[in-house]
């Protein structure tokens, strides 16, 4: 009974700030009010008329999509090499490729800024992109690694024995079996890139900005309900991503035996 | 299908190139910068500035205090919630809804989540209103700009990680082991302490490591909820890169932050491994 109470209170604690943000975005007042006073969608109209928000939103989406695709191109061969081969330095390689998961993003961002300054890779889209590829690759790699099994190896050998080329074996035999993992890892990667501040903040400018960095800059100096409206839209995007993952792999993974 | 050494080389080429060029070399550049003066002379003075100064130790102490407290609170709150989701919830759809509620915050930017707390924790925010209304306090408590406020925000952001890792461990515990313990006369508490909890220890450790490493390097949440009144290590390092432009001193701060993070991850995974060995030895 006590456990149930603690658990439900904790769940409420997890949902409360998001409810507050959505609530604030609907207020008629010019200041942040929760519970909202009156109900209006006018703050959403305000942000839709603001070209900088639209531009940042597009930058974020494009950046996340490209970083995710690049991360798949990096993680897929790495996962195949790590599961199908033994080679010296394998554990070191896996440690390096997975380490951005736990290392401070602010340090990775600072390092890329300092290094990029020497080769002109600063405050432009490619600079943002390489950083995001580094931090999202481990998400794809981590979901791919457990998916390569020994059964696949014999199926691939069978396919080769029957005359299929290495490429068609990959696309017809291997890829279908890891597709769900690749997609769910890709969604995690996309979201991680889409919500990142710590890394992007080093390379954004007033004309090249991502949505979270723009929010971060606004929230520190001035707050009005339009920020809550932008925030609510990102919550909506997150909800869509989760429903997609649930539909793809099912989120019932916490069920006991 | 993939058998020759040449294929291996092809497979590793892209990952190796990308991570060497944009991860290992940049980190190396920071490391070198932290050990040199502005004109490129070798020096340890940057680290001296960081490690021989009372203010920095104060910042490091705040960072650690926040990280340790967040880790403990996340485990203490996360375990019952994981237990509830795995053991108590019978209705599949409700569990699914709970998992979505758990993951939704993870998929939302730190900014948005901290922004929610900025609204909630203000002087006239919902939390103070509720506490005043319940007669628990007489005057509004100041949360924003205090360590308590940052702690509330950090726990909020990191809690789902412990729930997920503990929940996964809990779902894998063989029920027959618990039944055996009960059949042999152990009470529910004894069974939990000597069977269930040790079997989920790796989940607790894994969650703890994630939470600790993210809390110690957190930037956005402390920056937003501190209102500039509390400083953590990540904020100090960022200032050097964004406003002061002292890359050498900033490098030393970054490497210090990196070292602390890696040392703690190392210690925790070493402790987990020792735990596993002991279990095998018995």
Automatic annotation (TrEMBL), chain A:
Q: How does it sit in the membrane?
A: Multi-pass membrane protein
The organism's place on the tree of life at top rank: Bacteria
Provide one Gene Ontology biological process annotation.
transmembrane transport
What is one GO cellular-component annotation here?
plasma membrane
Q: Which InterPro entries match?
A: MetI-like, MetI-like_sf
Pfam families noted in UniProt: BPD_transp_1
For this UniProt record, the keywords arranged alphabetically read as follows: Cell inner membrane, Cell membrane, Membrane, Plasmid, Transmembrane, Transmembrane helix, Transport
* Localization (cell): Cell inner membrane; Cell membrane
Where is it mainly found?
A: membrane
Which positions, given as ranges, span the membrane?
53-80, 92-113, 125-148, 169-195, 227-249
Record bears the keyword Iron: no
The family note in this entry says: Belongs to the binding-protein-dependent transport system permease family.
Query: Which protein are we looking at?
Result: ABC transporter permease
Which species is this UniProt entry from?
Answer: Shinella sumterensis
């Amino acid at each position: 009974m006590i456990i149930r109470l603690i658990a439900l209170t904790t769940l409420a604690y997890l949902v409360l700030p998001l409810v507050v943000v959505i609530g604030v975005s609907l207020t008629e007042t010019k200041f942040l009010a929760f519970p909202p006073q009156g109900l209006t969608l006018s703050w959403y109209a305000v942000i839709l008329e603001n070209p900088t928000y639209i531009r940042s939103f597009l930058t974020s989406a494009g950046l996340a999509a490209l970083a995710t695709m690049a991360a798949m191109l990096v993680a897929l061969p790495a996962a195949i090499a790590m599961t199908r081969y033994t080679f010296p330095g394998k554990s070191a390689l896996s440690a390096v490729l997975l380490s951005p998961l736990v290392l401070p993003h602010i340090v990775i961002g600072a390092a890329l800024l300092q290094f990029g300054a020497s080769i002109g890779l600063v405050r432009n889209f490619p600079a943002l992109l390489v950083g995001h590829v580094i931090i999202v690759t481990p998400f794809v790699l981590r979901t791919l690694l457990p998916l390569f099994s020994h059964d696949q190896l014999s199926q691939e050998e069978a396919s080769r024995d029957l005359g299929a080329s290495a490429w068609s074996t990959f696309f017809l035999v291997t890829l279908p079996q890891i597709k769900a993992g690749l997609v769910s890892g890709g969604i995690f990667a996309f979201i991680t890139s889409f919500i990142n501040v710590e890394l992007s903040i080093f390379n954004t400018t007033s004309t090249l900005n991502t949505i979270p960095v723009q929010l971060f800059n606004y929230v520190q100096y001035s707050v009005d309900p339009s920020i809550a409206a932008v925030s609510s839209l990102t919550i909506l995007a997150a909800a869509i991503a989760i429903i997609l993952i649930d539909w793809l792999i099912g989120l019932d993974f916490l069920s006991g035996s | 299908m993939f058998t020759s050494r040449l294929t291996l080389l092809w497979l590793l080429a892209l990952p190796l190139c990308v991570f060497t060029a944009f991860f290992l070399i940049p980190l190396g550049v920071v490391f070198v910068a932290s050990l040199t003066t502005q004109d490129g002379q070798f020096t340890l003075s940057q680290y001296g500035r960081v490690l021989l100064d009372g203010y920095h130790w104060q910042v490091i102490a705040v960072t650690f205090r926040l990280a340790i407290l967040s880790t403990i609170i996340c485990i203490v709150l996360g375990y019952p919630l994981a237990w509830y989701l795995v053991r108590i919830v019978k209705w599949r759809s409700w569990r699914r809804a709970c998992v979505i509620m758990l993951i939704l915050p993870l998929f939302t930017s730190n900014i948005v989540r901290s922004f929610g707390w900025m609204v909630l924790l203000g002087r006239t925010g919902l939390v103070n209103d509720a506490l005043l209304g319940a007669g628990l306090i007489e005057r509004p408590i100041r949360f924003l700009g205090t360590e308590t406020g940052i702690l509330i925000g950090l726990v909020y952001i990191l809690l789902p990680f412990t729930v997920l890792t503990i929940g996964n461990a809990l779902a894998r515990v063989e029920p027959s082991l618990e039944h055996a313990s009960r059949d042999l006369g152990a009470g529910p508490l004894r069974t939990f302490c000597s069977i269930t909890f040790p079997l989920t220890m790796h989940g607790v450790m894994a969650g703890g490591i994630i939470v600790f490493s993210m809390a110690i390097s957190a930037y956005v949440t402390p920056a937003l909820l501190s209102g500039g009144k509390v400083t953590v290590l990540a904020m100090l390092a960022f200032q050097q890169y964004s406003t002061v432009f002292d890359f050498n001193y900033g490098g030393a701060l970054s490497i210090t932050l990196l070292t602390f993070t890696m040392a703690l991850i190392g210690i925790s995974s070493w402790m987990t491994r020792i735990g596993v060995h002991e279990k095998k030895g018995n």
